[in-house]
Structures are given as structure tokens and as C-alpha cells.
Amino acid sequence: MANLSYLKPSTRLPMMYIDDGLRATLEVMEAPAESLSMRTYNINATSFCSEELAQEVLKHILEFQITYNVDSVPQATADSWPMNFDSNARKDWGWKHHFDLPELVTTMLNVHGPDSRVAQAN
């Protein structure tokens, strides 16, 4: 299974599994108003690079391969992406993500399967 990345193998980006994002939305709506220090929150979960993602996928799909063909436009966007988000959500209502990289890969492959279009997108 061959896949193509337009970013450098070491380019790290913040990611969040949608279930964590939906749960964060519900948690902030249910949090006591007096515990919230602001009206809008940036929520973060995990960060990883394509090289780390590939290594995690390889644990499940031994024939997985990735090719790097760095494109300057998406690379510039990724390089300019903020890495540190507001941590007030963790302080104000105890936000904590559930899906780290291993859990995210396992869940995605279990939901979509290794032969799905999602797993083979390139």
C-alpha cells in the first residue's frame, strides 16, 4: 500500500480525532459558567509528524509504504501553523483528549479498515 506525503517526514502538526472535538464541545457547554475564564477556547489534543504516523500504521499494515514529495506550498502552510494552543480549557474545566496517535490509528483502521479509500488516500 503506497501513500504520498507532500510534507517533510519531520513536519509536526496538531491533530484531533473528531470524537474528542465533539466531546470538548459538549463539555464546555455543560461546564459551570463560573469555571470558564473566557467565551472561546482553542482545544488541542495530540501532535505528530507523517513519519510517526507511518511508523504507527506499519504496526497494523506491514505492507504500508510512504513516499515524500515535498510541495513548497503545503509545507509553508504547515511550517507556519501554530503549535501551542491555549491551555485554558484544561485549567478551566479539565479538558483532556482521549485519542493519542496509537489510539487514533487503531480506531481509524478498525472503523474504516485497511482496505478502505480513507486508508489508501494519497
TrEMBL record:
Superkingdom of source? Eukaryota
Alphabetical GO biological process terms: L-threonine catabolic process
Example GO molecular function? L-threonine 3-dehydrogenase activity
Q: Which Gene3D superfamilies match?
A: NAD(P)-binding Rossmann-like Domain
Q: Which family does it belong to?
A: Belongs to the NAD(P)-dependent epimerase/dehydratase family.
The name this protein carries in UniProt is Uncharacterized protein
Organism, by scientific name, is Cnephaeus nilssonii
